[in-house]
Design a protein that fits this description.
The complex is a heterodimer. By secondary structure, chain A is an alpha/beta fold. Chain A has a domain of 211 residues: P-loop containing nucleotide triphosphate hydrolases (Rossmann fold), CATH 3.40.50.300. Chain A has a 7-stranded mixed β-sheet with strand order 2-3-4-1-5-6-8, with helices on both faces. Chain A has a two-stranded antiparallel ribbon with strand order 7-9. In chain A, helix 9 packs across helix 18 and helix 20 packs across helix 21. The longest helix of chain A is centred in the last third of the chain and has 35 residues. Chain A is elongated and about 90 Å long. Chain B is α+β, with helices and mostly antiparallel strands. Chain B has one domain: SH3 type barrels (Roll), CATH 2.30.30. Classes of the chains: A alpha/beta, B alpha+beta. Chains A and B meet through helix 3, helix 7, helix 8, helix 13 and strand 12 of A and helix 1, strand 3 and strand 5 of B.
């Protein structure tokens, strides 16, 4: 791509390193908020680029390559990193310099990667990150000796402290000042077992020569693991953490949600004073403000959920959770490593499905992708909250837990159980006979989560959600509003305006199909855009009922529903959304990640069938129980 | 060294004679030793691939190992400290690592 290379171009530096080595923290420290997150062309691997200026005034584009254990590239993420290191990544200019990031407290496996990258002949600097922690633990690292033994420049850094990257920046300047030419590494070949062993033994030799471990090694991780990895206590704690997480999603987020809701209500009223009654006002009030507001109100819950996930990740707990869950998940035909993607799917199936790339075997990966959308993603939270809030009494059970929180927990549990069941069936009927993929991963030392990293991650997730609310959801809301508003009711109409609209026509047409599962035509109207993005269903109900009730005193959507639906209908809708045919963007990602349209339709079909069956059973049972 | 656990354990019980190497996959909780060999064995992966992955995670001849934790069901998977790095793996794959006890 030489045409992208004008004279006086920006210099390019790429960060490469193992997962958990503090690479992302270093990237954040070096670039601050000047980051761009996108995808590499053709693949859904996240491409993170940032800008920085060196002390000597060089403008540098910094690329944060996906973490990798070796250049053998066993997953799509690692393929990107390998190809970037070899300078042959499609659509990317070969970087001028590679900064290999290593965790100074845990150099053993980092050093092998450094040696591997050095073999490619690319210009590189080795950054010993978390150097402060290493020193604090009593390790003594002879940096000069390390530099001499490795044959590459070595510099220490502390990503989480102000000024902790000064030496690294100087080193980058120094390396960029030297004559260099970004190039494609020729003649690289994957090392065989003997080659890997040779590299590891060389790394061990260098480690012994240049690093002295303290007499009394750090015991915090060992002591924590005694409890957190205990066969019984560990599992109990994991369950407790998940339970706490879902309680927090409900209770912590409530005040902020009230605030956002009040804000949108006030905005709607204020617009009402500016504009005359009519179509335009209805569009802005009911279509835009009510629609977008009813989705944005869930931002606090999504942030709380991501806060937990990011904290646990940063702390080093996620791989422990995979360890604890491996056997249980294996029983259902899932890989222990699938735990992390499935846990991320609680936030959103899309990052979850994308993170299945850590699973090497295609069969295990496919099984994980196919069940990930059954995990209760945050987009279902709006639907659940709305219905639970309207139909489940707000009281405490056993003096400790809120009943609403318990129902929510039950819905999450139903999602998990169904995911395990489906993967069990997949293993039994679709993937029979294949040997199980091994489970091998590093359990990194615990470390205190870094506030900046967590906040940065939280911010990026929040922006993605708000953008979705502002684009996809906004567009869908406009469509729904039009459908619900035209044609206008005839003169002297007695029914609410919406009864005469296109939406009502569509909803009534669906009635024969959705009646057995207890849904009325308004729900039918909401289900269609709900396929584009699940949370839109709530916004659609908001719009449909706002227009229907336009003449009456304004009431909250929850109260409106409580008056119009039976408990059986509400429960059936909850059951429907446990399995709800996933949003369009999830389908697109599944299509991309499996490389197959057939798997995408398989996923869509089986979830739709499950949703209908579950809603049908729930409704009929509830009616039998006298809740109809 | 013999640590007692009442959990289920793979049938190949660890030998107590210090000279004969045992498979790490059959070692009891608390086992400490040194790696004698990493062998390509058949199983879930092509043998050479399994060997490479184990070496990549730091299982090389001479490294000190300690079996720190094991799972609730079937004492599997296990968490092994290998020269300062903790690695989680299943006993099935750990069988490729031959170790001899050290005190």
């Amino acid at each position: 791509m030489n045409e992208m290379l004008p004279l006086g171009r920006d210099l390019r530096v790429a960060l490469v390193g193992r997962p958990n080595c503090g690479k992302t923290a270093l990237f954040n420290a070096l670039t601050g908020s000047r980051q761009k997150v996108a995808n590499y062309p053709g693949v859904t691997v996240e491409r993170k680029e940032g800008a920085l200026a060196t002390p000597a005034g060089r403008a540098v584009k910094l690329l944060d390559l996906p973490g990798t254990y070796s250049l053998r590239a066993r997953s799509p993420d690692e393929v990107v990193t390998r190809d970037a290191v070899l300078g042959r990544l499609a659509g990317e200019v070969p970087p001028d310099l590679f900064v290999c990031v290593g965790d100074a407290t845990n150099l053993r496996l980092c050093l092998r990667l450094v040696l591997e990258i050095k073999r490619t002949g690319q210009p590189m600097v080795f950054a010993l990150n978390m150097f402060d922690i290493a020193r604090h633990r009593g390790m003594s690292i002879d940096v000069e000796r390390l530099e001499a033994e490795l044959g590459v420049p070595v510099v220490t850094s502390v990503a989480v402290r102000r000024g902790g990257t000064a030496a690294l920046l100087d080193k980058i300047d120094e390396a960029l000042a030297a004559p260099h030419s970004p190039h494609v590494a020729e003649g690289w070949s994957e090392p065989d077992a003997a080659g890997v062993r040779r590299l590891q033994k060389e790394a061990d030799r260098i480690l012994r020569a240049s690093v002295q471990h303290p007499e009394a090694p750090d015991t915090v991780t060992a002591r924590l693991d005694k409890v957190l990895l205990h066969p019984v206590a560990g599992l109990a704690i994991l369950l407790a953490v998940l339970f706490l997480m879902f309680q927090a999603v409900f209770t912590w987020a409530a005040p902020a949600m009230e605030l956002i809701k009040a804000g949108f209500d006030a905005l709607g009223l204020w617009v009402g004073t500016l504009l005359p009654d009519g179509l335009l006002l209805s569009f802005i009030q009911n279509g835009l403000i009510a629609g977008v507001g009813s989705v944005l109100v869930f931002l606090p819950q999504i942030l709380v959920l991501f806060l937990f996930i990011l904290l646990l990740e940063d702390f080093g707990y996620m791989s422990r959770a995979a360890f604890l869950m491996d056997k249980i998940m294996g029983g259902a035909g899932l890989h222990g490593r699938a735990f992390i993607p499935l846990l991320s799917s609680f936030a959103c199936a899309i990052p979850g499905i994308m993170s299945t790339r850590v699973i090497d075997s295609r069969r295990d990966r496919l099984a994980t992708i196919l069940v990930a959308p059954l995990m209760t993603c945050s987009a279902r939270i709006p639907v659940y909250t709305l219905i639970i809030g309207a139909f489940i009494p707000d009281r405490t059970v056993g003096g400790l837990f809120s009943l609403q929180g318990l129902v929510m927990f039950g819905l999450y549990a139903a999602g998990i159980a169904s995911a395990l069941g489906v993967s069990f069936l997949l293993k039994k009927f679709l993937f029979q006979g294949a040997p199980p993929e091994p489970f091998m991963l590093e359990l990194p030392d615990y470390k205190r989560p870094d506030a900046r990293n967590v906040l940065m991650g939280l911010y990026q997730r929040g922006v993605i959600f708000v953008k979705r609310a502002g684009t996809t959801i906004l567009a869908m809301m406009c469509v729904i509003w039009v459908l619900a508003s035209v044609p206008r009711p005839p003169e002297g109409a007695t029914e609410p305006a919406i009864e005469y609209s296109l939406a009502a026509a569509i909803g009534h047409a669906m009635e024969p199909v959705i009646k057995p599962i207890g849904f009325n035509w308004q729900i039918g109207v909401a289900l269609i855009p709900g396929m584009a993005a699940r949370e839109v269903a709530v916004a659609s109900l908001g719009t449909v009922y706002a227009i229907e009730n336009a003449e009456e005193a304004p009431e909250t959507l929850g109260a409106a529903l409580a008056g119009k639906w039976s408990l059986a209908t509400a429960l059936a809708l909850l059951a429907w959304y446990v399995f709800a045919p996933q949003c369009a963007s999830t389908l697109v990602v599944v299509r991309k990640e499996t490389g197959s349209l057939a798997w995408m339709w398989f996923l869509f079909g089986y979830m739709l069938a499950l949703a209908y069956a579950a809603a049908f059973a729930t409704y009929q049972l509830a009616v039998l129980a006298g809740l109809g | 060294m013999s640590a007692s656990t009442d959990c289920l354990r793979p049938t190949a019980a660890p030998t107590t004679e210090p000279t004969s190497p045992t498979a790490l996959g059959a070692a009891p909780l608390g086992f400490r030793g040194r790696i004698r060999a990493v062998n390509p064995i058949a199983g879930s992966l092509p043998p050479e691939e399994l060997e490479r992955r184990l070496v990549e995670l730091g299982f090389v001849e001479g490294a000190m190992v300690e079996l720190l934790h094991q799972g609730l069901f079937g004492a599997d998977p296990i968490a092994v400290r290998v020269d300062g790095v903790t690695i989680a793996l299943r006993r099935r794959e750990a069988a490729a690592v031959l170790v001899e006890a050290a005190d």
